[in-house]
Amino acid sequence: MNIWSALEPSLLINLTIIVPLIGAVLVVLTGKYPNLRETVSIATAITLFTLVLGITDNTFNQITMATTWVSLLSGLEIAFSVEPLGVLFALVASFLWIITTIYAIGYMRGHNEQNQTRFYVCFALAISTVMAICFSANLLTLFIFYELLTLSTYPLVTHAGTDDAKRGGRVYLGILLGTSIAFLLFAILGTWVSAGTLDFTPGGIFTDVQSDGLIALLLVLFCYGIGKAALMPFHRWLPAAMVAPTPVSALLHAVAVVKAGVFTILKVVIYIFGIENLSQIMTTDLMLYIAAATVLLSSCVAMTKDNLKARLAYSTVSQLSYIVVGALLASSIAAAGAALHIVTHAVGKITLFFCAGAIMVASHKKNISEMVGLGRKMPLTMVAFAIGTLSIIGLPPMAGTWSKWYLVAGALEADKLIIVVVLTISTLLNIVYLLPIPIKAFLTPPDENQQPWSRAETIKTPLPSLIAIGITSTACVALFFYPQPIIDLINLIPDVSTEFRGQS
């Protein structure tokens, strides 16, 4: 039993939000002492993860956990409650915060980055908002912290202070705030006016009283208003943010921002619309096929990118839409696959970004065309890259196998054969744009002008970064052989199941 699970439930929720804030203050106070500052960062991350483990214990023991901060109007509160999907996201984010902090120590020092204290502070603030998003009890609370996450990560995107960084930051802020104001805010207002509540409720909150047209419009507004899910054409913020340091890219792609987007879509589908009701909404298929198109189009764009981080960025756009597809298939098993893909994509993609950053710091190479023979010089890093690649592709024995399996099963359950075709083609495209990278690194012979490789030329990845890469690549394999604890948690989500039931 986790020591924190004995705490009063409302205190446990509050601590998950407050502890990263305390960590941010301590980082500021210890900023002049790098070793102490980074020790504080790791200690805070470990503390948060153990708190989330306590919440996880309570969830499996079916202990109700909720707390209210402020009551604005009758039925309209800033409040938090624990449900299994939020616990799943909190586990991913809090665990990977530890690993990303370890990685950042090697990267930030190895690359001689400026403003390192600000980096760790903003990272902690972002994780605090993520915890609040995980446990939001209603759409109002989620909206507030969803926007705070955007604002807290903006300084990380513009960290370098260059013209490119500032330009990328403007695109990042413009699209994310723009979609929230133009679409998400109106979706929430429409939900409040029509349903009279914003509370997340198993089975959804809409009844026969609301018009079909209004509900159809609200679904479109939610899908595009949640800009962090990066549905086309509102996806450009994500590649634009690649000007940030690699630990920030890892934060954006695996720990916080994009996962907050797809988590929010999945939560809205399950607790606002209801999975059982989704197939009756007129615009469900429209948004489903837009998500499917995003899967394929972004993969095609990824193939054209020689810059490694840019290719990985468009890969993320594609993989996020896997989760949106799973949410919109109106299938319990597809929703389970979407929830599982939050986990498997997180460990696979963070491994790839960690490797990309290590390659850049150690060898100063950013383009894939420059990586011929790099596997001989950075063998551990490139082996980890190969593992992350196989997981993203979805080949056994890697974690990504299971989430893709459930997504395909869900598409069959929903009788959407076109989605099975899309997922199959996407997997083939994953192979085309990812697998040649480790092949080029290990198997392609060097050019005639290159000197023969020798052990003396081995490039060393910074040790903290290598440790982080080792942990995440190991997780890619471990989650293939031992996914059951995650699956058990997913099966606790209302109306979500990993059991194939076929057509009713």
From TrEMBL:
Domain NADH-Ubiquinone oxidoreductase (complex I) chain 5 N-terminal as annotated: residue spans: 75-120
Main location: membrane
Domain annotation NADH:quinone oxidoreductase/Mrp antiporter transmembrane: ranges: 136-429
Transmembrane segments: 12-33, 39-56, 88-107, 119-146, 171-193, 214-231, 251-274, 286-304, 319-339, 383-405, 417-443, 463-482
Pfam family, one: Proton_antipo_N
Transmembrane helix is among the record's keywords: yes
Keywords for the protein's UniProt record, in alphabetical order: Cell membrane, Membrane, Transmembrane, Transmembrane helix
Subcellular location, record wording: Cell membrane; Membrane
Cellular component GO terms held in the UniProt record: plasma membrane
InterPro entries: CPA3_Na-H_Antiporter_D, ND/Mrp_TM, Proton_antipo_N
Membrane topology category: Multi-pass membrane protein
Family affiliation: Belongs to the CPA3 antiporters (TC 2.A.63) subunit D family.
Name under which the protein is recorded: Monovalent cation/H+ antiporter subunit D family protein
